[in-house]
Design goal:
Strand content: over 45%
Shape: globular
Order of helices and strands: EEEEEEEEEEE
Distance between the termini: 40 Å
Largest sheet: 7 strands, mixed
Length: 127
């Protein structure tokens, strides 16, 4: 059973930066896709970014349009960690951010494509 633990959330002003970390315990393989979703106040959980294994120790990233150019997803050296660097933050980025893993390696941009989830970390962007 995989366990995902997020960290790095907090309060930041508009235009600021934060980095979220997610560490997977268990048997997370380098071929797992790992991604980030978020759920803002009164909103449904939505896709933010994903990192898919593409072979030869490389990964391909995909982003939601609303974060493209501001957020960067990356994998750690051990491949069972994933980071989300968030720059130029806006108040509308305020949400609980969840880490997710897809053991099939597909990492699609929707919730049902992931079979492991973290508990979430709060990010609040003040105006």
């Amino acid at each position: 059973q995989e366990q995902l633990v997020e960290s790095g959330g907090g309060l930041v002003q508009t235009g600021g930066s934060l980095r979220l970390d997610c560490a997977a315990s268990g048997r997370t393989a380098s071929s797992y896709a790992m991604g980030w979703f978020r759920q803002g106040p009164g909103k449904e959980r939505e896709f933010v970014a994903t990192s898919r294994w593409s072979g030869a120790n490389t990964y391909v990233a995909e982003y939601a349009e609303v974060v493209k150019g501001r957020f960067t997803i990356s994998r750690g050296d051990t491949k069972n960690t994933v980071y989300l660097q968030m720059n130029s933050l806006k108040p509308e980025d305020t949400a609980v951010y969840y880490c997710a893993a897809d053991s099939r390696g597909w990492g699609p941009p929707y919730l049902s494509g992931y079979n492991y989830w973290g508990q979430g970390t709060q990010v609040t962007v003040s105006s």
